[in-house]
Specification:
Mean pLDDT: 89
Order of helices and strands: HEEHEHHEEHHHH
CATH superfamily of one domain: Ribonuclease H-like superfamily/Ribonuclease H
Helix content: 25-40%
Distance between the termini: 44 Å
Structural class: alpha/beta
CATH class of one domain: Alpha Beta
Oligomer: single chain
Strand order of the largest sheet: 3-2-1-4-5
Number of strands: 5
Shape: globular
Length: 230
């Protein structure tokens, strides 16, 4: 499996967009365990899924999840976290944390994003998540086209969070945790509407940045690319 490159993501696609600029849709759920079964047929078990959330936000960290569902896990309803309501994500996150064979979270801070760039910081968060698993995976399925791990077999899957239940599980636990982190920051960084926008570039968030300037937890490299100065 070759190492591939992905261009860095910019600010979100619209002020009302959900995670990374997408909105939930009515598309059929195509997420299943086909990749996990294929891995098992080769003896590549345990298999983990890994995904990140928060890549396009202006505020806060990028957060990655890594999950080994394990044999017998009930994966019904798992899907790309962007296609689920907040309540459904929280319900599924509880099922994953309580029933999965192993799960872990990796975080790369806004400072690391500014220092490394978003692509490298995302890789760092994924490596931290996988390293934190209490069970070492034999194969890691990763959403996207990058393969950022060392010392473990990996398979990048485009739109993998909507196709692989392991990657979907990783996206769900990461999304639920990051949302809770940003909501806590809303109290310490008032005025930016973080509870509502989760750190993404809503119109109200952009207006607050123009008025208040960035907090210590904003991504300065992202804000500079919006084309206005403080």
């Amino acid at each position: 499996m070759s190492r591939k490159k992905k261009t860095a993501a910019g600010p979100p696609r619209g002020p009302d967009a959900d995670e990374d600029g997408f909105r939930p849709s009515n598309s059929p759920n195509l997420c299943d365990d086909r990749f996990e079964k294929e891995a098992a047929s080769r003896g590549d078990v345990p298999v983990a899924g890994a995904d990140e959330v928060g890549r396009g936000a202006l505020f806060g960290p990028v957060v990655a999840g890594a999950v080994i569902l394990g044999e017998g896990f009930d994966w019904a309803g798992l899907n790309d976290s962007k296609q689920l309501t907040a309540r459904r994500r929280e319900e599924l996150a509880i099922r994953i944390r309580e029933g999965a064979q192993a799960w872990s979270i990796g975080v790369a801070s806004a400072e690391e994003i500014d220092r490394l760039n978003i692509r490298m910081a995302t890789h760092l968060a994924i490596r931290r998540a996988v390293a934190g698993l209490k069970v070492a995976p034999k194969l890691v399925l990763i959403d996207g086209i990058d393969e950022p791990l060392d010392g473990v077999a990996q398979k990048a899957i485009v739109k993998g969070d909507a196709l692989s239940v392991s990657i979907a599980a990783a996206s769900i636990v990461a999304k639920v945790l990051r949302d809770s982190m940003i909501e806590e920051w809303d109290a310490t960084c008032p005025g930016f509407g973080l509870r509502e926008n989760k750190g993404y570039g809503s119109a109200a968030h952009l207006d607050a940045l123009r008025t208040l300037g960035p907090s210590p937890f904003h991504r300065k490299s992202f804000i500079e690319r919006t084309g206005w100065l403080f």
